[in-house]
Amino acid sequence: MLEAGSRLNGDSFFRWLVTAAGVGVLLLLGGIILVMIGGGMKAFETFGPSFFTTSVWNPVTQHFGALAPVFGTIVTSLIGLVVAVPLAFGASFWLTQMAPARISFAVGMAVQLLAAVPSIIFGMWGFFVIVPLIARYVQPTLHHWFGHVPVIEALVAGAPFGTGLMTGGLILAVMIMPFVTAVMCDVFTSIPAVLKESGFGLGATRWEVMRNVILPWSRSAVVGSVVLGMGRAMGETMAVTFVIGNANKIGWSLFAPGNTIASLIALEFPESPAGSVKLSALMALGAILMGLSFIALAISRVLLGVSGKKEGR
Amino acid sequence: MTQLNDTTQPAVTDGWKVNSSLAMRRRLMDRLATVLSLCATAVALIALGSILFTLIIRGAGGLSLITFTHSTASPGLNGGLANAIVGSLIQTAASILIGAPIGMMCGIYLADYGRGWMASTTRFVSDMLLSAPSILIGLFIYELVVVPTGHFSGFAGSLALAILALPIVVRTTEDMLRLVPVSLREAGIGLGASKWRVILFICLRAARTGVLTGVLLAIARVAGETAPLLFTSLGNLDWSVSLARPMASLPVTIYQYAGSAFDDWVQLAWTGALLVTVGVLLINILVRVGFGRKGA
């Protein structure tokens, strides 16, 4: 046993140790940001503000712009969210409020397992299963129906490659849906039973309890789960790299090959020698991606009321 | 519930008719929500089923002793995945050895010591790292370790994976420590134990299932990571167990082989994918079933 005198030392040493770990995490992120910006400096200096406004990506002329991959990142993430969030909400609603306990446990586990599948597996699955589906059935069908409708016509235009923004977005949706579902399920099960019971006591249906009791009570956490999903979608690399088509273009068609920041980095890095402008442009894109994730998370924090809830616990 | 009260107002004047049509509408709405949510759940199950089905159909054919005993080889030379499997195990283990202790300490700091802006910043940064694109972690370690040392290495790969494992452990540790009842802490303090002993031997002990869950989930997460390894451990077509040299790993091998033109390489990619997925899913099943629902 420690003596009274050394106990104080043990305490302060431990306090110092864990605080150092906390500071270490801060430094880590600071380091990542610094390295990204530092690495991208050359590109920022070479191209100036036009780096953000041009969609050229030409290794031959050594001219690089960020617009196309940024566009692809945002579009694929949005497609992913638009598809995944309603699905995730529905699934977590069913799992937590309706399914019998045993089935809920089994199905809930299956959904969790889907969340755990490594992203490269989603990429392979997307490439060998979803891409042919899109190329053979989905896009031709959509083109047949909407090919003459103004506005939508442009969205479904193009040759049926199967690879492209829509495929990337759909793969992302499948990837983040179980992730968002898992968080929502945790949120919905953590609601005090009294609140739900009082809702049912007033004669409300399950949907009304969900809509008027559970959702308002857990709103911040639900938003948090969606934003976390979005962050994951924006930074997802391997799943998208397989199916995005790798073309640095901006267009209306959702079925045209595109690119995202993460997949561009993964695909082009091996051909970027250290110290080259191209590598610097990739790092600059990394900095932009970091910034996008940061903004998403910061917005979520504002929506969550600056984590006041957690402090109060 | 105010809306509900508002809509029931006319019932007083119009009698049962309005009331019953309202009840009908409410019941219909409830049914609709039920059906739609059931469909949503089905979509997730179908996706999982399709992935597992594809993996088994395409991957199981390549499962043989050679896969586990031979290293990767040129197309047509009957290569296996031994170096990739061992490389993945080494890098995952090393990353957890680095990341988990730091993550736990940071989690303890957040749960028991952190106050004010410093703690909320640390929490935010940890969340940031959790959702930080893994490929950027790879670029970071590339600039920080690979460029100065002049070569790709298994150690760099392990470091990148450690950064990915870290925030998962931070978050679960903090969450689990916060779930430990105050009375337990008070009891420890009341017995005269110092704070660090209370935290380590009472709180962390009480929360160990949850913390272990976090570590296992971290293992499962990093075991399948590909992107950060592309720039750090690079992959190695030969037998590689030295952390100082480029090291093979299952995910990178899958990535390199899946897009190749050789049938036996594509076959190995599917087999590798099956192995990784089964491994990762087994850990997750262990977490879910072994530790019960509360664990995660």
From TrEMBL, chain A:
Positions of the ABC transmembrane type-1 domain: 70-300
Principal place of residence: membrane
InterPro entries xref list: MetI-like, MetI-like_sf, Phosphate_PstC, Phosphate_Transport_Permease
Cellular component per GO, a single term: plasma membrane
PROSITE patterns recorded: ABC_TM1
SUPFAM superfamilies assigned to the protein according to its UniProt record, in alphabetical order: MetI-like
Keywords recorded for this protein, A-Z: Cell inner membrane, Cell membrane, Membrane, Phosphate transport, Transmembrane, Transmembrane helix, Transport
Source taxon at top rank: Bacteria
Membrane topology: Multi-pass membrane protein
Residues that span the membrane, as ranges: 12-37, 66-95, 107-133, 252-269, 281-304
Gene3D superfamilies: MetI-like (1.10.3720.10)
Pfam families named among the record's database cross-references: BPD_transp_1 (PF00528)
Subcellular location: Cell inner membrane; Cell membrane
Chain's role: Part of the binding-protein-dependent transport system for phosphate; probably responsible for the translocation of the substrate across the membrane.
Protein name as annotated: Phosphate transport system permease protein
UniProtKB/TrEMBL annotation, chain B:
NCBIfam families per record: 3a0107s02c
Domain ABC transmembrane type-1: residue ranges: 85-287
UniProt key word Metal-binding: no
Transmembrane segments: 32-57, 84-112, 124-145, 151-170, 198-220, 268-287
This protein's name: Phosphate transport system permease protein PstA
Family note: Belongs to the binding-protein-dependent transport system permease family. CysTW subfamily.
One of the GO biological process terms: phosphate ion transmembrane transport
UniProt topology in membrane: Multi-pass membrane protein
Subcellular locations according to the entry: Cell inner membrane; Cell membrane
GO MF assignments: phosphate transmembrane transporter activity
Coiled-coil annotated spans: none
InterPro entries: MetI-like (IPR000515), MetI-like_sf (IPR035906), Phosphate_PstA (IPR005672), Phosphate_transprt_permease (IPR051408)
Pfam families: BPD_transp_1
Keywords from the UniProt entry: Cell membrane, Membrane, Phosphate transport, Transmembrane, Transmembrane helix, Transport
PANTHER family (alphabetical): PHOSPHATE TRANSPORT SYSTEM PERMEASE PROTEIN PSTA
CDD domains linked: TM_PBP2 (cd06261)
Organism of origin: Acetobacter aceti NBRC 14818
Transmembrane keyword on record: yes
SUPFAM superfamilies registered for this protein in UniProt: MetI-like (SSF161098)
Record's GO cellular component terms: plasma membrane
